Amino acid sequence: MIVVTGASGQLGHLVVQNLLQKLPAHEIVAAVRNPEKAKDLLALGVQVRKADYDLPETLVQAFRGADKLLLVSSSEVGKRFIQHRAVIDAARKAGVKLVVYTSILHADTSPLGLAAEHKQTEDYLKASGVAYVLLRNGWYTQNYTASIPPALQHGAFLGSAGSGRIASATRADYALAAAAVLLKDKQPQSIYELAGDAAYTLTELVAEISRQSGKNIVYKNLPEAEYKAALVSAGFPEPVAGIFSESDTGAAKGGLFDDSHTLSQLIGRPTTPLSAAVAEALKA
Questions:
Q1: 41 in any annotated domain
Q2: Domain for residue 12, yes or no?
Q3: Do residue 251 and residue 152 come from a single domain?
């Protein structure tokens, strides 16, 4: 049996959908904070169990009987390590044989502030005694394509990444990789550095948006503080604005680049091209 945490979220839900193509539904557990949000998976025959990272008492029961567990990293920056530690402790108590964790690209050397809690989690998992696989996911292409509507409206795409090259991939690519790892019969303790096949700068991204939309969009590179302020004024909560602005600065330092092609090798196909991701965002 395979448990996927955060299964009502965007990445976790895609992982479950991939697993359903290979496994009977009853062998999959969707572990979610609010079971009401996973009714669609329940209707497909997937087991839905309550698992709240902030309520450790829910976790052991949710993981009972599982051979493998996908720990989808929490979205609550600042609380992540505490929450992840609770999941790993519960997995050990429940007798889970393998924990697969969605970390961040080059977690041990990344210049991104987001990497700190991922590195803490990795170290704790390695010391837990439970077999593990680390999926060090790069940036989601959707993190940038989500900014296409305001860019079209204002004729400008803002960022702080300079000429840093970004090897992003879509959530669907990363979800397929997670499912592929979970479905392996024998899984040695491994670290996968996962990123898109073709890297780009934000200037190149904006050129692609302009080409496909037929509108002249310019890229405006801002100091980190100014970019954060712009995001806040656009309605982003300050912590979220801080994450995106700081991550862009990290991208300028090479923090979102990798050219190993490990992701495409793992999923058995090229990663989704930037042009396709832009087209999908424009269609939406």
A1: yes
A2: yes
A3: yes
The answer to whether residues 223 and 155 touch, using CB atoms and an 8 Å cutoff, is no
pTM above 0.90, yes or no: yes
How buried is 124 (Cβ within 10 angstroms: 0-12 exposed, 13-18 middle, 19+ buried)? middle
Radius of gyration of the chain (CA): 19
**Quick check: helix, strand or coil at residue 171?**
helix
Q: Is there a single domain that holds both residue 105 and residue 143? A: no
Contacts of 155 (CB under 8 A, 6+ apart): 215, 216, 217, 218
Q: Does a structural domain hold residue 182?
A: no
In single-letter form, the type of residue at position 106 comes to H
- The helix or strand, by DSSP H or E, that contains position 213, with its residue range, turns out to be helix 202-213
- Which residue's structure tokens are 């992840």? 84
DSSP label of 198: S
Indicate whether 123 and 17 sit together in one domain: yes
Examine the domain organization and report whether 20 and 116 are in the same domain.
yes
Q: Please check whether residue 209 is in contact with residue 283, taking contact to mean a CB–CB distance below 8 angstroms.
A: no
The reported pLDDT for the residue numbered 77 is: 87
Per-residue model confidence as pLDDT tens digits over 77-124: 889 999 999 999 999 999 999 999 999 999 999 999 999 999 999 999
Answer for the pair 175, 244: CB distance below 8 angstroms, yes or no.
no
Residue 184 lies in a domain: no
Residue numbers of the domain that contains 128:
2-137
User: Are 52 and 118 in a shared domain?
Assistant: yes
